[in-house]
Amino acid sequence: MMEKMIIQITSGQGPAECCRVVACVQSLILKQARNQRFHIEVLDNKAAELKGTLLSSTMMLTGYNLGPFLKEWVGTVQWIAQSPYRRYHKRKNWFVGVAAFDVQQLMKWDPKDVKLETCRSSGPGGQNVNKVETAVRGTHLPSGVQVFVTDTRSQLENKKRCLIRLQEKIVVWQTEQLMEQRYGQWQNHHELERGNATKIIKQDLF
């Protein structure tokens, strides 16, 4: 049976080095999943202050028999490396959390919860763009999440794209809600540190 899982990597509010580890772990997971012929896509990245760092990353993994792959990553990942930002910093152990959620555990997607509004597009395209209400704004009423689409001159096509993008955003929003409920301890980096590491990686962060 085809499985769909949401993977989220979090820095647990750790320092810049942990945010760098989030980006590195994301890269490793993407590469490994594709090598194993799973379909994986990034749904959302929350950027941290420094270039090449992430507060968190949310991805969707699709395939058969995902259990062994997820078992290797889910939990606390310990990354052993010299800080790339603080040259003389003695600490070399950095921790991030990896969680996985079955898409079916998340709130059911119901198009009836979406309010679609049309309006005139603005920008390049000449008068034809502005005469007809081709732009579409979709609002997911339970969450308030919005998407605005002006990709094409077809209102119908824009509506289709709006619903697809809004559903992807809602999956991310639902995952964040679930993480807050089930993994609240990850908001505290010290609790994350005390956990037994599921995976230990020794590699430069540069």
From TrEMBL:
Domain Prokaryotic-type class I peptide chain release factors: 120-136
A molecular function GO annotation: translation release factor activity
Family: Belongs to the prokaryotic/mitochondrial release factor family.
Membrane-spanning residues: none
Name this polypeptide is given: Peptide chain release factor
InterPro entries: Pep_chain_release_fac_I, Pep_chain_release_fac_I_sf, PrfH, Prokaryotic/Mito_RF
